[in-house]
Amino acid sequence: LKQVFNKDKTFRPKRKFEPGTQRFELHKRAQASLNSGVDLKAAVQLPTGEDQNDWVAVHVVDFFNRINLIYGTICEFCTERTCPVMSGGPKYEYRWQDDIKYKKPTALPAPQYMNLLMDWIEVQINNEDIFPTSVGKCKEEVL
Asked: Which sites bind Zn(2+) (predicted)?
């Protein structure tokens, strides 16, 4: 269990929403909808009077947190030796390109690919220009 919570691993702590903020209230509403057994289509519909960008941002962050948790539980079983390729089955291989260190699509072992991917997503989520913490300030051209 100690290995799952190692900060150098892909698992990251959940991004928190400040209690008392509108985003926190939207997060609570999203959690209640998803945990109540209701129709998923209805659960993701924009609540009346809420900003669409804020609603989408809350769900993106929640999805990232859930994926992080899931990956944190399986990462010890997928090592560079056991998972030498990041693939989606026998027909698909994922290659990493970030235009910084990896200028061209590069084949990587699955754990390395996942670490880079999770780091990249975290940078995007923490970018105030894409996911501002002030409600209603989202730049629509970015999303």
From this structure: 78, 83
